[in-house]
Amino acid sequence: MNKILAGLLLTGIVTAGLFWSLSGNDEENKAVAATGLPWQVSITENGATHILGVDIGEITFKELMFKLKLLAEPALFETPEGVLFLEASFGKKKFGILEARLIAEMEADQSVFKTMKDGNAGRDSTPSNHWRYSLSVKSTKVANDLRVWRLVYLPVADFELKQMKFFGEPKEKIQVTDNAQYWLYPEKGMALLWDKEGKEIFYYAAPKDFARLKKSLPTKVVTVDI
């Protein structure tokens, strides 16, 4: 019991420190708002995808929280096939004039994730038939310094086709269902799910990671709870 309380206390101290560090001035907040639209994408000189004022493919998870002035708790997931991956889900926030939820996926070798799994602070099952492992304080510190290779943008509002045209003409379209398509933009490091009857989902990765991003796209459209 004392070890559990000590762990929770240390986690609280780490979180509190991040919270105070994330408080920025009005000019910084305006700068984020000015680049807060999901179609405002550019590629940096280093080959990262610049979106929402951050460089996906280059930025670490800790840096992402600082830049967005948001906190999220990373968690380890395991597929039925035994593949481990690390994600953090951010709550709803207004970016520019639009409200959305974000999911960041971090990159590391499976051996790193295996160590996190072995030292996990508890696990739960998920509706997608994955195991979700809560991270120890030690593993959370490791996760903070990992590279964010993929960012998922989940808009609160439904997009219409005329709004989707802000993203430009995709290089490729993949039909998923009668009502849903993936629009692919490899030169921008961007993939979009356009769903006539459901929620749109936007994916971002560095162009060098685009083949991996394309491979990671779900082959079945699922309902997203925003």
Summary, kept brief:
This protein is an alpha+beta fold and 226 residues long. Helix content is 29%, strand content 30%. Strands 4, 5, 6, 7, 8, 9, 10, 11, 12, 13 and 14 form an 11-stranded antiparallel beta sheet that branches. It has a 3-stranded antiparallel beta sheet with strand order 1-2-3.
Report the C-alpha radius of gyration, rounded.
Answer: 18 Å
Number of helices: 7
Distance between the termini: 36 Å
* Strand segment tally: 14
Look at the helices and sheets and give the structural class.
alpha+beta
Describe the protein in words:
This protein is of the alpha+beta class. The protein has one domain (2-216). Helices cover 29% and strands 30% of the residues. It has helices at 2-22, 26-34, 61-68, 110-118, 137-144, 161-164, 210-216, and strands at residues 42-43, 49-51, 54-56, 74-78, 84-89, 93-95, 98-107, 123-125, 131-134, 147-155, 172-175, 180-185, 190-195, 201-204. Strands 4, 5, 6, 7, 8, 9, 10, 11, 12, 13 and 14 form an 11-stranded antiparallel β-sheet that branches. A 3-stranded antiparallel β-sheet has the order 1-2-3. The longest helix is centred in the N-terminal third of the chain and has 21 residues, at 2-22. It is globular and about 50 Å long. The two termini are 36 Å apart.
